[in-house]
Amino acid sequence: MGRWRDGAQCAVMLTFDLDAETLWLAGSLERRERIGLLSQGTYGARVGVPLILHTLRRYELKATFFVPGWVAEHHPDVVAAIVDQGHEIGHHGYLHESVTELSSEEERAVLERGIEALRRVTGIVPRGYRSPSWELTTRTLQLLEEYGFRYSSNLMSHFLPWQHPDTRLIELPVQWLLDDAPFFLFRTGPGSRPIQPAQVAFQAWAEEFQGIYRFGGLFNLTMHPQLIGRPGRILMLERFFEHLLSYPRVWFATGQEVAEYWAAHVAANPEEWRQGLVYDPLRHRS
């Protein structure tokens, strides 16, 4: 039997970073007049999200959507539809700011502004936090603890969760390999990368899932509605869901469900989690 709920061998988190226009604004409204550039983000909110919600309903799967506060304010009906379908809402900054470029006071203000925007639009106070670009400062974890967050999903130190020392925060690890942006995000100008066929992402994700499944880990897939929400990629996503569902004893869960289960289970059965691991996440110090 596996280490996850009801003896599942592997836990799967389906997560979507609903950046919308903020991906291109990147913490500043200076580019708000670049309508063509921002339209890529508008597509994600207005077209990508409905296609994703339809697909999740079809396969009866729950997901976690990390939403910047600005997006909740400017696309409240889209965010409401996510909540109405029973998915989790997590914090993703306010205007997709890079926290490493903020002062201590600015980082606190952005966190508060994002919390308030999500609370005002959805009635929900988020318990999960994903920083834009997965960057943290030396202050971030203390702020998350202070504001009552339950988990962070930003670091790449393992494929199993761990608890941050001296906090209640559970880390739900991510990886660029399990993100659609390296395959599909295209920017004009220097430094752009070629767009990959959807099958390339399918193959990479399927290979990594097979490995994580074998070792009983957490498969935390990060997607962006403006990228994965293109029609051809939605068809690939359907095939990928079918691939995941073909495996026995897989637990599909939201970030909050994974964090709560992991914390309770590790507290009760610490030795079970150490079995078969080359590296022990319980002794990890971030």
Describe the secondary-structure layout.
Layout: E1 10-17, H1 22-25, H2 35-59, E2 64-67, H3 69-74, H4 76-84, E3 88-91, H5 104-122, E4 128-129, H6 140-146, E5 151-152, E6 162-163, E7 170-171, H7 181-184, H8 198-215, E8 218-223, H9 225-228, H10 231-245, E9 250-252, H11 255-268, H12 270-274
Parallel strand pairs: 1-2, 1-8, 1-9, 2-3, 4-5, 5-7
Antiparallel strand pairs: 6-7
What does this structure look like?
The model is unreliable at 282-286 (pLDDT under 50). The chain has one domain: TIM Barrel (Alpha-Beta Barrel), CATH 3.20.20. The chain is 45% helix and 12% strand. The radius of gyration is 18 Å and the shape is globular. The longest helix has 25 residues, at 35-59. It has 12 helices and 9 strands. The protein has 286 residues and is α/β, with parallel strands linked by helices. Helix 8 (198-215) runs parallel beside helix 10 (231-245).
The stretches of 5 or more residues where confidence is low (pLDDT under 50) are 282-286
CATH superfamily: Glycoside hydrolase/deacetylase
**Major sheet description:** 5 strands, parallel
CA-atom Rg in angstroms: 18 Å
At CATH's second level, what is the architecture?
A: Alpha-Beta Barrel
Structure classification? alpha/beta
Order of helices and strands: EHHEHHEHEHEEEHHEHHEHH
- Fraction of residues in H or I helices: 40-55%
Average pLDDT over all residues: 93
Q: How many distinct helices?
A: 12
Pfam family, one: Polysacc_deac_1
Organism: Thermomicrobium roseum (strain ATCC 27502 / DSM 5159 / P-2)
Keywords: Plasmid
GO molecular function: hydrolase activity, acting on carbon-nitrogen (but not peptide) bonds
